[in-house]
Specification:
This protein folds into 3 domains: about 300 residues, FAD/NAD(P)-binding domain, CATH 3.50.50.60; about 100 residues, Succinate dehydrogenase/fumarate reductase flavoprotein, catalytic domain (Flavocytochrome C3, Chain A, domain 1, Alpha-Beta Complex), CATH 3.90.700.10; about 80 residues, Up-down Bundle (Methane Monooxygenase Hydroxylase, Chain G, domain 1), CATH 1.20.58. It is built from 16 helices and 22 strands. Strands 1, 2, 6, 7, 8, 9, 16 and 18 form an 8-stranded mixed sheet that branches. Strand 7 and strand 8 form a beta hairpin. It is globular, with a radius of gyration of 22 Å. The protein starts with a strand and ends with a helix. The site of succinic acid has 9 residues, from loops. Succinic acid binds next to loops.
Length: about 550
C-alpha cells in the first residue's frame, strides 16, 4: 500500500542545503515536506570541520575579486566564471543570514570574525566554529526549523519525514511531480517492503541529497553519501556533468585497520595554522612539489602524498600538528585533538598517520545557481548539484558556501514561481520511473575497493578499463530494499565516474591520468552525460542560462 501526501515543495535531504531551503520556503508561506534517509542531523554537513569560505571586508569588490581568483586557480580552467562570481558575491549576505539563524561562529576579542586559511586560499577567509562548523550549522538550522514548525497553526505547513529513502522520482508529461519513498528501518529491511511505500506529490521537488563518498572504500563521507539523488535524476533523464572529478582530501586519519569507514578527517585548517607533512623518515616534502608547500590546493597535496607513499613504500605519511602549539591546538581544534586521543594518538606529542580519502564530488546534476536542472520543476542544490563553481578541483570550504547560496536562490526562485504551477496534481495518471532492476547482488566491497584502487588519485586507461569490466559484470536484484536501492546507485555512480574518467585523456585538477600526465588545451571543456550518452560542452555553459 502506498500512502499519498501532497505539498508545494518536497525537499529530499536535510544537510545544509535542504535545511536552509526549507526554512526560507516556510518563511515565504509554502507548504514543505522535508524527508531524509536517516535522521535530520545525519549528513556530511554535520561533520564539516574547516568552515565556510566567504568574502571578507563586508563583501567588498576587492574581496570578491580575490576569492574569485583563488577559485579559478583551484578549478584548473573548468570553473564557470560567471556562476562563480555570482556565488561568491552572495557569500557575505549568506554569513549574515546564518548569524540571524543562531549559527555560531568564532569571533576575535574585538567582535570581528575569527577567520582561518586553507589550501589554495591567498588569505584567511574561512568562517568557522572551532573545528565543528558543520555541527554548528546543522544544529542551528534544525532548531530554527523546529521553532518555525512550533509557530505554525497548520500541521501540513511543514512535515518532516525521517528514515525515508527516496527511490524514484514521479514524472508526468516530462516534468517532475515529487518522489516515492521506502521506509528505512535501520538497515533491517523486509524483502518485500511494499507496505512501507510513501508517495509525495509536489509542485516543486528539490534534491539536496549530498555526495557520493561511499562509492569509494576509503572516504571521509558518512554512510548516507551513496549518491542517491544523482542516480534518481539520471534515471528520469536529467543531465549530469563533470562526473570524472572527485576530490580526495589529503589528510584523513590512516589507521592500521584501513577499512575503517568513514575515515576521520583532519581538517586542512590545521595546515593553515602551521601543521606540516612529513614522510616516514620525518622529512618535510611538500616544497618539492609546489612552492605553496602544505597550503597548495588539495589536488596537488593529495597527488604529492600519493607519490611519497609510493617512493617510500608506505601506506601513509605523517601530519605533524606540534608546530601549531598546544594552546592553539586545544582552543581551535578541540574535536580533532579529542578524537585522535580516542584512537590512542597524542596530537601534542607525535605526528599523526594520514593518507588521502575520497571527500567531495565536483560533478553531479547539472544545475543553475537557483538549482534548476534540465527537468522542469526538479531542482538540485548542494553537493549533489554541479553549477560549475568548482571546475576540476574545489577550493577548500567553497562547498558549504555553494550549498548555502543555492538553497537561498532556489527558495527565492520557487517562491516567485509557486503559484504559476497548476494546483491540481497528477493523481491516478502518475507515471513513476521504476526502480533500477538487476539480476544478482553486486559485490559492493569489490566495487568500492576498485573505485579507490583503480579510479582513485592516479588513473590510467588500463586501471579504468579494469574497473569498468568489474562494474559491467556486477548486477543487483530487483528486490525492494533500502540496501539494494543504495547498491544500485553506488554501482551506477561507479560506472559513470569511471567512463567519464576514461574519456578525459589528460590530467587536470583532481583527475590525474598516468598515461596522459599533462593538461591538454583540447580538453578545456566539460562532459555532460544523460541516459542517451556523453557530450562535451564549453566551460561557461550557455544552454542552461539561456533557458
Ligand atoms: P549533506 O549534508 O550531505 O546532506 C545530504 C542529505 O540527503 C542527508 O540528510 C541524507 O539523509 C539525505 N539523503 C541522501 N540520499 C537520500 C535519499 N535517497 N532519500 C532521502 N534522503 C536522502 N565543506 C566545506 O565547505 N567546508 C568544510 O569544512 C567541510 N568539511 C567537511 C568534512 C567532512 C568530514 C565531510 C564529509 C565533508 C566536508 N565538507 C566541507 C563538504 C560539505 O560538508 C558538503 O559538501 C556539504 O555539507 C553538503 O551539504 P548538502 O546539504 O548538499 O548534503
Ligand atoms: C577541511 O576542514 O579540511 C574540509 C574542508 C573542506 O572540505 O572544504
Amino acid at each position: 500500500m502506498s500512502k499519498i501526501i501532497e505539498t508545494d515543495v518536497l525537499i529530499i535531504g536535510s544537510g545544509f542545503a535542504g535545511l536552509l531551503a526549507a526554512i526560507k520556503l516556510l518563511e515565504s508561506g509554502a507548504r514543505v515536506v522535508l524527508a531524509c534517509k536517516t535522521y535530520l542531523s545525519e549528513s556530511s554537513t554535520n561533520y564539516a570541520q574547516g568552515g565556510i569560505a566567504a568574502t571578507t571586508d563586508g563583501g567588498s569588490f576587492k574581496a570578491i575579486e580575490l576569492h574569485l581568483e583563488d577559485t579559478l586557480n583551484a578549478g584548473a580552467g573548468l570553473v564557470d566564471e560567471k556562476i562563480a562570481a555570482e556565488i561568491i558575491a552572495s557569500s557575505w549576505p549568506l554569513i549574515q543570514e546564518l548569524k540571524e539563524y543562531s549559527v555560531t561562529f568564532d569571533y576575535l576579542a574585538d567582535g570581528s570574525f575569527s577567520l582561518t586559511r586553507e589550501g589554495g586560499h591567498s588569505t584567511a577567509r574561512v568562517y568557522h566554529y572551532q573545528d565543528i562548523t558543520g555541527k554548528s550549522i546543522s544544529h542551528g538550522l534544525i532548531d530554527k526549523l523546529k521553532h518555525l514548525q512550533s509557530l505554525s497553526k497548520d500541521r501540513a505547513q511543514l512535515r518532516i519525514y525521517e528514515n525515508k529513502l527516496a527511490y524514484s522520482l514521479i514524472m508526468f508529461d516530462g516534468t517532475c511531480w515529487g518522489a516515492k519513498f521506502i521506509a528505512n528501518e535501520s538497515g533491517n529491511q523486509p524483502s518485500n517492503a511494499s507496505k512501507e511505500l510513501t508517495t509525495i506529490l509536489a509542485k516543486h521537488t528539490i534534491l539536496a541529497t549530498g555526495g557520493i563518498g561511499q562509492v569509494f572504500s576509503r572516504t571521509t563521507n558518512p554512510a548516507v553519501a551513496t549518491g542517491d539523488g544523482i542516480g534518481l535524476a539520471y534515471e528520469v533523464g536529467a543531465e549530469l556533468i563533470d562526473m570524472e572529478f572527485v576530490q580526495f582530501h589529503p589528510t584523513a586519519l590512516h589507521l592500521k585497520k584501513e577499512s575503517e569507514t568513514p575515515a576521520f578527517l583532519i581538517s586542512e585548517a590545521v595546515r593553515g595554522a602551521g601543521a606540516i607533512l612529513l614522510d616516514i623518515n620525518h622529512d618535510r616534502f611538500m616544497q618539492r612539489f609546489h612552492p605553496a608547500g602544505e597550503l597548495a590546493t588539495r589536488d596537488i597535496v593529495s597527488q604529492a602524498i600519493y607519490r611519497v607513499m609510493q617512493e617510500t613504500h608506505q601506506r601513509s605519511v605523517f601530519l605533524d600538528l606540534r608546530p601549531i602549539g598546544k594552546d592553539i591546538l586545544e582552543k581551535k581544534f578541540p574535536n580533532i585533538v579529542h578524537k585522535l586521543k580516542d584512537y590512542g594518538i597524542e596530537a601534542f606529542k607525535e605526528p599523526v598517520p594520514v593518507s588521502p580519502a575520497a571527500h567531495y564530488f565536483m560533478g553531479g546534476i547539472k544545475a543553475e545557481c537557483n538549482g534548476r536542472t534540465s527537468i522542469p520543476f526538479l531542482y538540485a542544490i548542494g553537493e549533489c548539484a554541479c553549477t560549475g563553481l568548482h571546475g576540476a578541483n574545489r577550493l577548500a570550504s567553497n562547498s558549504l558556501l555553494e550549498a548555502g547560496v543555492m538553497a537561498l536562490k532556489a527558495a527565492q526562485f520557487i517562491t516567485e514561481q509557486n503559484d504559476n504551477r497548476e494546483r491540481t496534481m497528477p493523481n491516478t495518471q502518475v507515471q513513476s520511473e521504476s526502480m533500477p532492476s538487476y539480476n544478482k547482488p553486486p559485490d559492493l566491497l569489490a566495487v568500492r575497493h576498485a573505485m579507490s584502487q583503480e579510479v582513485g588519485i592516479i588513473r590510467s586507461a588500463e586501471s579504468l578499463g579494469k574497473a569498468l569490466t568489474l562494474f559491467n559484470d556486477s548486477l543487483i536484484t530487483n528486490t525492494y530494499s533500502v540496501e539494494n536501492i543504495q547498491a544500485a546507485n553506488i554501482l551506477l555512480l561507479a560506472k559513470l565516474i569511471t567512463a567519464s574518467a576514461l574519456r578525459r585523456e589528460e590530467s587536470r585538477g583532481s583527475h590525474f591520468r598516468a598515461d596522459f600526465p599533462n593538461m591538454d588545451k583540447k580538453f578545456v571543456c566539460r562532459q555532460i552525460v544523460t541516459r542517451e550518452g556523453y557530450t562535451w560542452t564549453n566551460t561557461a555553459d550557455q544552454k542552461l542560462s539561456a533557458k
